[in-house]
Amino acid sequence: MLKKIVILGPESTGKSNLCQQLADQYNTLWCPEYARKYLLKNGTNYNYDDLLHIAKGQLKLEDEYAQSLIGRLDSHSPGPLGSQPFPLFIDTNMYVMKVWCEFVFDKCHPYIMDQIAERKYDLYLLCNTDLPWVKDELREYPDAETRQKLFLIYKELLINQAVPWKEISGNYHERLQTAIRAVDKLMS
User: Which candidate, 181, 188, 169, places its Cα nearest to that of 10?
Assistant: First the structure.
């Protein structure tokens, strides 16, 4: 049985690093954020319609990783796939796309909202902004006030939905340990 675990939060909060560490910990795959690849190829001068394209690319990538993991499990396990839970870590999902659309353009594509309602996940790990912001060519919000505002938007989304979630904070080691405990609880 595949368990989908989403890591989300504002930019530069260690999401990709945490995904990689968790995938290594559980000997599984993690799905990267499609937006990075898209923006590196097409530039950072994006528009509202670009965010719809990014959302669709993220979902396609997530589905590819899920299918790859299911195929890997089927080829290595003697029993049915459903006999033991196995995690797929996902660096961002449609909640991130919703927040991005609304924060930048004050509106969200109906497709994204439909996908939020349709797709199911097993756990969310929300990365706090207590790591230092690291500049790169794609990041837009270095100021602590904007980062905290975005974090609180994500937190409000998670509070108001039925799927379990855990706030991830502290240094990189503390974050990993908190995440492992949350994943272990889900998998048991």
Answer: 169
